[in-house]
Every structure is written in structure tokens, then in C-alpha cells.
UniProtKB/TrEMBL annotation:
UniProt note: domains: A Gly-cisPro motif from one monomer fits into the active site of the other monomer to allow specific chiral rejection of L-amino acids.
Family recorded in the similarity comment: Belongs to the DTD family.
Organism for this UniProt entry: Alloalcanivorax venustensis ISO4
Full protein name: D-aminoacyl-tRNA deacylase
Function as written in the Swiss-Prot or TrEMBL entry: An aminoacyl-tRNA editing enzyme that deacylates mischarged D-aminoacyl-tRNAs. Also deacylates mischarged glycyl-tRNA(Ala), protecting cells against glycine mischarging by AlaRS. Acts via tRNA-based rather than protein-based catalysis; rejects L-amino acids rather than detecting D-amino acids in the active site. By recycling D-aminoacyl-tRNA to D-amino acids and free tRNA molecules, this enzyme counteracts the toxicity associated with the formation of D-aminoacyl-tRNA entities in vivo and helps enforce protein L-homochirality.
Chain's gene name: dtd
InterPro entries noted in UniProt: Daa-tRNA_deacyls_DTD, DTD-like_sf
Subunit and partners: Homodimer.
Length: 141
């Protein structure tokens, strides 16, 4: 997850998702991820304290600051890079299941009251962002 002042995703030159201040979340679904995993991830994204309070401490969540979330599916995050010079994607969820889980994650975030924009699952996407801080966290379940 990256704290951003703006972010957008383009596919074939057209903007498919964009936000102003909030979080850009790159999401990689792995084999074994399920609805319970998605529910926990939605809670983590919505509640993770990445934004500064009055004292400059990271004590506020995207929900607290009225921000938005841009979700971008990225199967390469599930790569095994432990050996050799070529990644293995054997840990990545099957595309149909990964799409279902990504859709469920977006729905869960919307249900929590957050504005959510999305990339296009499986597409060749160009992502532009202005990282605020920079602040970037890797969240594993």
C-alpha cells in the first residue's frame, strides 16, 4: 500500500480508475487466499494508520482522513523470487479465483464506506502516482 496525493490507472490510453488523496493498493492473490483472507485485508486497508495526526504521527487511517482507495490487481506480487533469475508464479491464485477475490475486496472496502476505484483485472495497465512521503507498506496476511 502506498499513501498517495493522487493516482490513476490507464488501459490502452484511457483512465479506468483514479483517486486524489488516499491509498494505492497493489493486490496479489495467492493460492489458499479465501473470503476470510479478503475480509481481513479489507479491514487492514481501511484501518491501517498511515496518515499523520496533529502531532505528525501516523495515527490516522484512510477512513479517518476521508481518503479513497485505488485497487490494482498485480499477480507478480505472488512471485517466488527465491531461486534463479526468473520468477515463478506457482504461488499465484488461478485467474478466475483471483478475480473473484479482488472483486470481493473492492466490495468489502465499499461496504465499509470507502470510495474505491479499480484497475482492470488482467489488463496491461499503466499506473501513475504521486507517493506522499514516500510512505509504502507491504501488508501480508
Amino acid at each position: 500500500m502506498q499513501r498517495v496525493t493522487s493516482a490513476e490507472v490507464r488501459v490502452s490510453g484511457r483512465v479506468v480508475g483514479a483517486i486524489d488523496s488516499g491509498l494505492l493498493a497493489f493486490v496479489g492473490m495467492e493460492r489458499g487466499d479465501d473470503d476470510a483472507s479478503v475480509e481481513r485485508m479489507a479491514g487492514r486497508i481501511a484501518g491501517y494508520r498511515m496518515f499523520a495526526d496533529e502531532q505528525g504521527r501516523m495515527n490516522r487511517s484512510v477512513r479517518d482522513v476521508g481518503g479513497s482507495v485505488l485497487l490494482v490487481s498485480q499477480f507478480t506480487l505472488a512471485a517466488d523470487t527465491g531461486k534463479g533469475l526468473r520468477p515463478s508464479f506457482s504461488r499465484a491464485a488461478e485467474p478466475q479465483e483471483a478475480r473473484r477475490l479482488c472483486d470481493a475486496l473492492a466490495a468489502g472496502l465499499r461496504d465499509s464506506g470507502l470510495p474505491v476505484a479499480e484497475g482492470e483485472f488482467g489488463a496491461d495497465m499503466q499506473v501513475s502516482l504521486v507517493n506522499d512521503g514516500p510512505v509504502t507498506f507491504l501488508i501480508n496476511l
